[in-house]
Design a protein that fits this description.
Number of domains: 1
Strand content: 5-15%
Strand order of the largest sheet: 1-2-3-4-5-6
CATH superfamily: Aldolase class I
Radius of gyration: 17 Å
Number of helices: 8
Order of helices and strands: HEHEHEHEHHEHHE
CATH class: Alpha Beta
Helix content: 25-40%
Distance between the termini: 19 Å
Number of strands: 6
CATH architecture: Alpha-Beta Barrel
Largest sheet: 6 strands, parallel
Structural class: alpha/beta
């Protein structure tokens, strides 16, 4: 596949990404779709230094086998591996994982192109250093930093406009889970966060 089409996977955006085992239940849509598997790992605010980040990236490349490869229409059943280092480490880490076919992404972006937004990162910035994916709607961005669905929707569309691929993270809180409204919460987040996204653009959206 040339693009990572809408892949609905079972992994928590609150933790490092894990995927459904081979024997697990999957939706009919997934069974019918021929899409390259993707395994993504969010480093969050770790590690503490550039040297540690480079060591982590180097170590990861040594663990990967031949079943791992970048997006390639000739090898649609190999697994794409994506990592999300903290912004200061992205460029250097990319340099040590590129040859192993590992893709790098950004943990977040702001939905404006430029301006007086101290501490924010524009999509053009992460694009210019080689990011192919951007996390949007991570649970910690929602709960800790106050990203609401409107902001997440603007981020998703900004990422798509830049030609990058958003990984849209959805999911219920512990309270919502206990109230047994997780399906309703996820459906609402999907509806709001993907507002205005076209069918054609959905081919570049991954749903976590």
């Amino acid at each position: 596949m040339k693009i990572s089409a809408t892949v609905l996977v079972s992994f928590s955006c609150a933790h490092a990404f894990t995927f459904v085992p081979n024997g697990a239940r999957r939706s009919t849509t997934l069974l019918e779709a021929k899409r390259q598997p993707i395994m993504a790992g969010n480093w969050k605010m770790n590690p503490a230094t550039m040297d540690e980040a480079l060591a982590l990236g180097t170590g990861l490349t040594k663990l990967l086998g031949e079943e791992t490869c970048p997006m390639d229409e000739d090898n649609e059943f190999c697994t794409e591996v994506v990592i999300f280092p903290p912004h200061p480490f992205v460029s250097n880490v990319k340099g040590v994982v590129d040859d192993a076919g590992i893709t790098v992404g950004a943990q977040s972006i702001f939905f404006e192109d430029s301006g007086a937004y101290t501490g924010s990162v524009a999509v053009s910035m992460v694009d210019s250093i080689g990011c192919e994916y951007v996390l949007c709607g991570h649970s910690e961005r929602r709960s800790v930093f106050g990203d609401d669905d409107e902001a997440i929707n603007r981020k998703v569309k900004k990422v798509l406009e830049a030609g990058l691929k958003p990984i849209l993270c959805i999911g219920e809180t512990k309270e919502e889970y206990d109230l047994e409204i997780k399906n309703e919460v996820c459906a609402m987040q999907l509806s709001k966060d993907l507002k205005g996204v076209t069918k054609e653009q959905m081919k570049n959206v991954v749903i976590a």
